[in-house]
C-alpha cells in the first residue's frame, strides 16, 4: 500500500486527474473503470464481500458510460468485452451478496482478466493515467 505525504501547503499534481473535464471523456471513463477494479481487488484481498457487492452496480454503470464516451469504432470494438464484464458483474453481485468467498474470488479473477483485455483494446500504449489509491 502506498501512502502519500504532503505538507499543509503542498498540493499533489495529478495532471489530467485534476481536470474535471477529463472524467467526461472516454479516457476518463476508462480511468474510473481501472480505479474501481483496483478498489475491488483491495476488497477481495481483505475479504470485504459486502463492499464488492455494493460496488458491482457501479461497475455496470461505469462500463455503460465508457462505451458511450468512446468513438463508434472503439465502442464497437470494446462492446463484446464490456458485455462480458456486465454479465460477470451480475454473478459477482450475487455471490458476494451471499458472502460466498470461494465463488466470488474465482469470479473476481475472471473480471480482472476481462478488464486487462479491455485495457489492451482501449489503451494499448498505456496513455491513461495510472490509478492512484
What are the low-pLDDT stretches, counting only 5+ consecutive residues below 50? 1-13
CATH topology: Four Helix Bundle (Hemerythrin (Met), subunit A)
Q: Determine and state the CATH class.
A: Mainly Alpha
Could you give the order of the helices and strands?
HHHH
Briefly note the structural class of the backbone. Answer: mainly alpha
- Percent of residues in beta strands: under 5%
CATH superfamily: Oxygen-evolving enhancer protein 3 (PsbQ), four-helix up-down bundle
What does the overall shape look like?
globular
Kindly, what is the distance between the CA atoms of the first and last residues, rounded to a whole number of angstroms? 9 Å
Number of helices: 4
Helical content (DSSP H or I, runs of 4+): 55-70%
Q: What's the pLDDT, averaged over the residues?
A: 86
Strand segment count: 0
What's the number of domains? 1
- CATH-scheme architecture: Up-down Bundle
